[in-house]
Specification:
Number of domains: 1
Number of strands: 12
Low-confidence stretches: 1-59, 202-207, 343-352
Oligomer: single chain
Radius of gyration: 22 Å
Shape: globular
Structural class: alpha/beta
Strand order of the largest sheet: 1-2-3
CATH topology: Rossmann fold
Strand content: 5-15%
CATH superfamily: HUPs
Number of helices: 11
Helix content: 25-40%
């Protein structure tokens, strides 16, 4: 076979892969926006133990409601097609209702963040045509706000120090006859929750180094029953212990995802939180934190994930499906957006 024919074949393969993935994205967008033949979404959650409110209704956006969404990537790599779908859903929802689309860099984990990825993410969004409103927020500049929220919970007696290492947790779980289980595997067994107050303060053999965990049982007793609205799944009952006693502040950075995202969504006045279905269990934690901290409750849309050929969700290891790779290969932003919009027609499930 001539060399130029071999080169052409090598060039075609990525295009075929992209075409397949984009076709899947069109289907995903269709599901996310509830465009079944009946005009409503009827999708069972992939997480055991999480019940939906039956057939998800097509909610009306209240007249005069200010819609504000956000896209919140971590600057630990370039954006891929899964990110493009997530950004499009948030962007289009805001634009359709004359609202605002914000950009937030979730960069609290300084060990994984790289400076070049801030600009790279913003470059990818601009190339796709997803312009954002206002200044870009960086979580690394908001550590004082997270500390204040943690202090409030501490004053309410709802968090406790955890001195356990990952290895110690794994060993304890392995020794248990019936370890507590969550949607994605075993949960923290509550080792430090029942420590005496004196031991909590001194932290034996740990030098005082500890993380802070939410006492989900105490928190639930204080809030009482809670619910939240998801545009795909309808009205959902909050299960406070679904993820157990989650970490609200890591040993190394003084905060963690669950606390930071709840504080920042309220700070930025986000009305609609759109994100992947893998984060649906986390919303149970977030709804628990909101009333405890006196923060408003947004509307949620947890969209299906974009998967690779092996059925795994896309990650930053999928460099062949990175937006910058597709652009360098000659694919236009219009072609990507065409396929993204083909299934969902840019709708969010809200009328008007």
């Amino acid at each position: 076979m001539p060399n130029h024919a071999k080169e052409n074949r090598r060039e075609i393969r990525p295009c075929r892969q992209v075409a397949v993935i984009l076709g899947l994205i069109a289907i995903v967008a269709d599901l996310a926006f509830g465009h079944a033949n009946t005009g409503t979404a009827h999708i069972r959650s992939s997480f055991p133990g999480i019940r939906g409110g039956g057939r998800a209704r097509q909610p009306q956006t209240p007249p005069g409601m200010k819609v504000r969404t956000r896209f919140a990537p971590s600057p630990t790599g370039r954006l891929h097609l899964g990110h493009a779908l997530a950004a499009k859903l948030a962007h289009d929802l805001a634009r359709r209702h004359g609202g605002e689309f914000l950009l937030r860099h979730e960069d609290i984990d300084a060990t994984r963040v790289r400076d070049e990825y801030y600009a790279g993410i913003e470059e990818d969004l601009r190339w796709l045509g997803f312009g954002w409103d206002g200044a870009v927020l960086r979580q690394s500049a908001r550590l004082a706000a997270y500390e204040a929220a943690l202090e409030k919970l501490l004053g309410m007696g709802l968090v406790y120090p955890c001195y356990c290492t990952r290895r110690e947790i794994q060993e304890e779980l392995a020794a248990m006859v019936a370890a507590p289980q969550g949607p994605e595997g075993p949960l923290y067994p509550g080792t430090c929750r029942d420590l005496a107050a004196a031991k909590r303060q001194c932290g034996p053999d740990r030098g005082g180094t500890h993380a802070w965990r939410l006492d989900s049982r105490k928190a639930a007793a204080l809030t009482g029953p809670l619910t939240f609205v998801d545009l795909r799944h309808g009205l959902l009952e909050v299960r406070p212990g679904l993820l157990g006693d989650v970490v609200l502040a890591r040993k190394d950075i003084g905060t963690a995802y669950h606390l930071a995202v709840v504080v920042d969504d309220a700070y930025q006045e986000i009305s609609h939180v759109t994100r992947g279905e893998d984060l649906l269990p986390s919303t149970h934690v977030h709804r628990l934190l909101q009333p405890l901290l006196g923060l408003p409750e947004p509307v949620y849309l947890h969209h299906p994930l974009v998967l690779d050929a092996q059925g795994r969700r896309l990650a930053k290891r999928h460099d062949s499906l990175a937006i910058t790779t597709l652009r360098q290969a000659g694919m236009s932003a219009a072609a990507v957006l065409e396929q993204l919009a083909a299934g969902g027609s840019g709708r969010d499930g809200a009328q008007g």
